[in-house]
């Protein structure tokens, strides 16, 4: 196992990280404008539309920031744990990066020209310019090329080491890559066979139900595509940072396999109020959605077992004495830990969203947006920041100084404070019925709109604090990439505890797990999808383009 990422692979990973943080800057500015408009006391200049800004924010932060950061992190992780990339894989990684970048530019230009104000979900019947859809296609295809490079390196490692379990971080990255490739088949299907031909005028209508179903086939596992890299850091990297050991290699691998199996065939729980889908199939997918609680609890158990074992080894006594022994002054630990803590209320909110009965209360309210900001914008993003604090200097040949370490902890506290205010207000006013995505000016004659004003102001306050957090992280990132002192920063990889059981090779038997995954998807989607096509409205085409 390498101790340092090869410089050539490091440049590939860094290119992805640069793109991710540029997206953070632009998407964060759009988010600030959004909450200011929603407060009712700010008007966008130059005829910029509220929903145009909302689309910029959602696409850049929900799709561009996350995808580029994750691929960059995973390229570095595989190079670090499975060895330097072969030239063909590295070339494929660069091709994937440039294809994604071109696609991002195409989509961004169309949004800025107000030709693609279709929100993050780009639901039909909202229609964008065909260049926007083609750009999204390039982003997906580019990610497949980059993911293919990772899979090729994994296969190469397995051939060189028959009968041995692959490095844990490599295995986790491959699970996440497979999840992404399988999930994006849905969004690629609706874009290539429905939305792109529709925007080009090749067909006059699309089947909206099929389009939304294909989007949410992708949209829910997208959440786990974001989450699993954070879990990689929690499982493998945090134990090394605190000076402890991984509780169980086998438990970590099994939890990732379960995330793969139970995150994809569950898209109907985002469509519980939509007609056209039989209640039986909705019920089945809700049950499968709740199954994902199992690997989540396994993860919580494993992490806190690691923390307690470390604390006890340092002499901690009592039920929570170990808590004081954790390295709270180290941003590489503290920042992701705040993300972990945020996942407790975020996960509880997810159970409410996935419940057929409770979903009726919060569906299409700004509660959902608040939940989204707790999961992605807090648990995931803070963990990504924590990764960046050691990964960027590791790749640039610099060090995380005491000053930057202290500023990173301040940034996380600012972020947590701003998000608590903004997301808390979103959850609260969502329970009062405030609609999702709407600005103050679009509430119309809603009699309760005046009751929502204090919550909208609180969102603006929280959003402003968050933007200060974005300025801080951009300053820290720039320092670590270009100005920090030269030196060697560790890429921390945890070791498995001596007491842990040997990892069984069945956990890397892809024939079993991919067969189970395919079976679950077919069971969950085949009959309802056939019903949608069979009962499609006249002229809606669905996939019948010709």
TrEMBL record:
Coiled coil start-end: none
CDD domains on file: ba3-like_Oxidase_I
Xref: Pfam families: COX1
GO molecular function terms listed in the Swiss-Prot or TrEMBL record: cytochrome-c oxidase activity; heme binding
Locations listed in the record: Membrane
Chief site of localization: membrane
Membrane topology: Multi-pass membrane protein
Entry similarity comment: Belongs to the heme-copper respiratory oxidase family.
Full protein name: B(O/a)3-type cytochrome-c oxidase subunit 1
Organism, scientific name: Rossellomorea vietnamensis
Organism phylogeny: Bacteria, Bacillati, Bacillota, Bacilli, Bacillales
């Amino acid at each position: 196992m390498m101790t340092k990422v090869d410089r050539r692979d490091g440049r590939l990973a860094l290119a992805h990280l640069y793109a991710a943080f540029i997206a953070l800057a632009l998407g964060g500015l759009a988010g600030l404008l959004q909450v200011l408009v929603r407060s009712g006391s700010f008007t966008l200049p130059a005829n910029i539309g509220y929903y145009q800004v909302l689309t910029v924010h959602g696409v850049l932060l929900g799709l561009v920031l996350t995808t580029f950061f994750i691929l960059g992190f995973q390229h570095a992780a595989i190079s670090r744990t499975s060895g330097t990339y072969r030239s063909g894989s590295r070339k494929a990684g660069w091709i994937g990066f440039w294809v994604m970048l071109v696609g991002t530019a195409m989509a961004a230009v169309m949004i800025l020209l107000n030709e693609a104000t279709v929100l993050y979900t780009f639901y039909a019947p909202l229609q964008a310019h065909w260049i926007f859809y083609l750009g999204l296609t390039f982003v997906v295809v580019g990610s497949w090329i980059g993911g293919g490079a990772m899979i090729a390196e994994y296969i190469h490692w397995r051939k060189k080491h028959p009968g041995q379990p692959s490095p844990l971080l490599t295995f986790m990255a491959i699970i996440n890559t497979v999840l992404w490739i399988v999930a994006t088949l849905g969004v690629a299907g609706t874009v290539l066979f429905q939305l792109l031909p529709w925007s080009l005028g090749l067909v006059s209508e699309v089947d909206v139900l099929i389009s939304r179903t294909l989007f949410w086939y992708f949209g829910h596992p997208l959440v786990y595509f974001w989450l699993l890299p954070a879990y990689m850091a929690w499982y493998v990297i945090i134990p090394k940072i605190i000076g402890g050991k991984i509780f169980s290699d086998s438990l970590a691998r099994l939890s990732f396999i379960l995330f793969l199996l139970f995150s994809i065939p569950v898209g109907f729980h985002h469509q519980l109020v939509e007609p056209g889908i039989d209640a039986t199939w909705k019920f089945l997918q809700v049950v499968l959605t709740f199954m994902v609680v199992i690997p989540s609890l396994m993860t919580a158990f494993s992490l806190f077992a690691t923390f307690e074992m470390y604390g006890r080894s340092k002499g901690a006594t009592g039920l929570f004495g170990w808590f004081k022994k954790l390295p709270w002054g180290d941003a590489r630990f503290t920042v992701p830990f705040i993300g972990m803590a945020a996942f407790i209320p975020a996960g509880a909110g997810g159970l409410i969203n996935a419940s057929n009965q409770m979903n009726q209360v919060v569906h299409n309210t700004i509660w959902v947006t608040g939940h989204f900001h707790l999961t992605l914008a807090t648990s995931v993003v803070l963990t990504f920041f924590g990764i960046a604090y050691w990964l960027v200097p590791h790749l640039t040949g610099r060090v995380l100084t005491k000053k930057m370490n202290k500023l990173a902890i301040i940034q996380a506290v600012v972020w947590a404070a701003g998000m608590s205010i903004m997301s808390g207000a979103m959850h609260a006013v969502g329970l009062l019925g405030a609609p999702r995505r709407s600005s103050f000016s679009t509430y119309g004659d809603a009699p309760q709109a005046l009751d929502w004003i204090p919550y909208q102001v609180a969102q603006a306050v929280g959003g402003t604090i968050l933007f200060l957090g974005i300025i801080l992280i951009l300053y820290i990132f720039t320092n670590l990439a270009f100005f920090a002192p030269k030196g060697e920063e560790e890429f921390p990889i945890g070791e498995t505890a001596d007491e842990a059981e040997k990892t069984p090779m069945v956990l890397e038997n892809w024939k079993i797990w991919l067969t189970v995954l395919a079976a679950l998807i077919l069971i969950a989607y085949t009959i309802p999808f056939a019903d949608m096509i069979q009962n499609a409205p006249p002229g809606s085409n669905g996939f019948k383009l010709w």
